[in-house]
What does this fold into?
Amino acid sequence: MAGIAIDGPAGAGKSTIAKKVAKELGFIYVDTGALYRAIAHYLVTNRIDIEDEAALTEACEGITVAIEYENDVQQVYLNGENVTPYLRTEETGNMASKSSAKPPVRAALLDLQRDMAKQHNVVMDGRDIGTMVLPDAEVKIYLTASSKERANRRYKELLEKGEQPDFDKIESDIIERDERDMNRAIAPLKQAEDAVLVDSSDMSIEEVVEAILAAAREKMRI
It folds into this structure.
C-alpha cells in the first residue's frame, strides 16, 4: 500500500487539500484530526480532567473510534454514535490540541491510523504523520501558511456561517495553538527531514494540490 503524509499547523488547509489529492489519486483520505477531535468531544462532554492521568487513561480505554465512508464522505463514529457534526467547534478544537499531546490519547489512535495505512492507499493529514505515525510514507508534505492568512481563512469561514468573529482573537488563538503543538513533549509538530515544504499563503487551492500531486508523481512514479 502507498501513503502520502501531510503535516502542518492548524488552519493550513490540510483537510481540504488532502481530500482533493486523495480524490485525484483514487486513495482513501484519513482525517486524523477528526479522530483526535472525536476523543476531545468525549472529554469535553464528559468533563474529563486531562491533567488527571488516571482519569484520562480510564476514559480512553472506554472509547472506541471508527471511520466509515458514506457516499465517499468520511464519517467518524465514537462508541457507535456518528459524531461528525460535533467535531468542528472551537471548544472541541482547542481540547483536541491539548489532549492530543497526552500519551493515553495518542496510544488509543496510533494503531488505528497505522492499520488503515496497511489496508489502503491513503492520504493522511495531521501534526505528526510523517514524523511519527507513518515515518516510512512514500511522500511527505509539510503544508503551512502565515498565521495571518490562516486566521483570515477561518474568519471568512465563520462569517459565512453567520457568526461575528473577532479576527485578532482568531489569530492569537492560532499562534497559541502553534506554540503548543510545536513545543509539546510528545510528537511535536515539525517538518520531517524528507518532507516537501509547501507554503500556501499566496497559492490557490488548485496550485497547492498540483504541487503535492507533482511530488507524488515524482516519488511514487504514478
